[in-house]
Amino acid sequence: MLSVENLHISYGAIKALHGVSLKVAEGSIVTLIGANGAGKSTTLRALSGLVKPVAGSITYNGKDISRIPANKIVAAGLCHVPEGRMIFANLTVHENLLMGAYLQRERKWIAAQTEYIFSLFPRLKERASQAAGTLSGGEQQMLAIGRALLGRPKLLMLDEPSLGIAPLLVKSIFERIVEINREQGLTILLVEQNANLALDVSSYAYVLETGKVLLEGPSAELKANPEVQAAYLGA
């Protein structure tokens, strides 16, 4: 579904990615793990068209998307839930969700998908008319995921969904991520600093370090790898 080959990204004189290559199979959950500054978020920003590669290619469903605008990437079905959630604080929960459906024209589908999101995250239904800025961090993360689901994604990219959230809500959100993958067959690319959680819910993983892929393999194998355990799992 998605193939990244030899991706190089720079911010001015700073080189953020040095030849990153990865693949995401349709219907899978793939995770990128690594320390702060490893290049995980930059990789997602490149896939979303928010930063342009210096070199390399990004192929989605057989088409090179590395040079097309971000709005066309969203329309093609790649939806990005950014680090920090980036919800519209002054809009209500329901208005935030509808912002995700900006490119959609089928009212029946929008209504049905909204109800599906409310079934996934009942707290959002309870707070539908409440200003989004008054929600807790975990509730805002639920809202950001729900907003992306209304973009009708084929590939959902999640950047640090556990960041700044109470452990109980983190568990609930990750259960919903797995549920979305299984029920809707939605492909998910997950960037996550909580390596234990990320490896538990994913089928394949890449370890990024200083802008390069250090290791890759089935998530269960990486979780058993002594090097990964020592560096990322607190073993």
Describe this structure in words.
This protein has 235 residues and is α/β, with parallel strands linked by helices. The chain has one domain: Rossmann fold. Helices cover 39% and strands 26% of the residues. It is built from ten helices and ten strands. The strands form two sheets. A six-stranded mixed beta sheet has the order 6-7-8-3-9-10, sandwiched between helices. Strand 9 and strand 10 form a beta hairpin. Helix 3 packs parallel to helix 6. The longest helix is centred in the C-terminal third of the chain and has 18 residues.
Return the structural class: alpha/beta
> What is the strand arrangement across the widest sheet?
6-7-8-3-9-10
Count of structural domains: 1
* CATH evolutionary superfamily: P-loop containing nucleotide triphosphate hydrolases
Describe the global form.
globular
Strand content: 25-35%
Question: How much helix is in the residues?
Answer: 25-40%
User: Which CATH architecture?
Assistant: 3-Layer(aba) Sandwich
What is the CATH topology assignment? Answer: Rossmann fold
Mean pLDDT across every amino acid position: 93
Give the N-terminus to C-terminus distance in angstroms. Answer: 34 Å
Biggest β-sheet strands, sense, barrel = 6 strands, mixed
Order of helices and strands: EEEHEEHEHHHHEHEHEEHH
Summarize this structure as a short list of keywords or feature phrases.
235 residues; alpha/beta; 10 strands; 4-stranded antiparallel sheet; Rossmann fold; globular; 6-stranded mixed sheet
